[in-house]
């Protein structure tokens, strides 16, 4: 059985087994692929091309989490990576220093796992939204979606989508990494006064959309009881 694609790759940098394991379990259950290293000095910068987010303890070591942030943000090859720094320091100075260094968010220990998961989701959605707002173009793997001209290209070739197929894709992209229920897709794409929610027509159109998009169509996944999302 093929493995369901993840919503994104997350790297945890923390020597604390308890915190790391809890984060891996909770983020993994949300659909993220999570791996871990113990110390900031062990992060291999040239292997972060597919990493969307690093969650790192401030770690009072010779090479700390703050040092890692400075180095990642100074390198054009790793500046794309989102960073959440956490620490048991509550002071305003620490927060300001972390954000000035390039961290996207800061959270104080002990923290709620639900809060951390919510912050991860919000940060990753926000980074995609900022990127797409700059030119109204969203890039996912080899697919380019121009929200202004309503055109879709894969490997540089225009994909001939129907109005319905494009509307579904645009809806999923605007809610990237978030499940959209079949009922909501039907309500937004088809007439609101249509008789009932026709789940079969939603599934059929998404099946056609996946085929037209080729390999990148596998980014559209469904989960029983949740609906569809594009990662």
Largest sheet: 5 strands, parallel
Provide the CATH architecture of the largest domain.
3-Layer(aba) Sandwich
What is the count of β-strands?
11
Annotated CATH homologous superfamily of the largest domain: Response regulator
Compact overview of the structure:
This protein is α/β, with parallel strands linked by helices and 231 residues long. It has helices spanning 17-29, 65-74, 92-101, 113-135, 163-174, 182-189, 199-213, and strands spanning 9-13, 33-37, 51-57, 82-87, 105-108, 137-140, 143-146, 151-154, 157-158, 220-223, 227-230.
Describe this structure in words.
Strand 8 and strand 9 (157-158) form a beta hairpin. The radius of gyration is 20 Å and the shape is elongated. The two termini are 19 Å apart. By secondary structure, it is of the alpha/beta class. The strands form three sheets. It has a five-stranded parallel β-sheet with strand order 2-1-3-4-5, with helices on both faces. A four-stranded antiparallel β-sheet has the order 6-7-8-9. Helix content is 39%, strand content 21%. It folds into two domains: 9-131, Rossmann fold (3-Layer(aba) Sandwich), CATH 3.40.50.2300; 136-230, Orthogonal Bundle (Arc Repressor Mutant, subunit A), CATH 1.10.10.10.
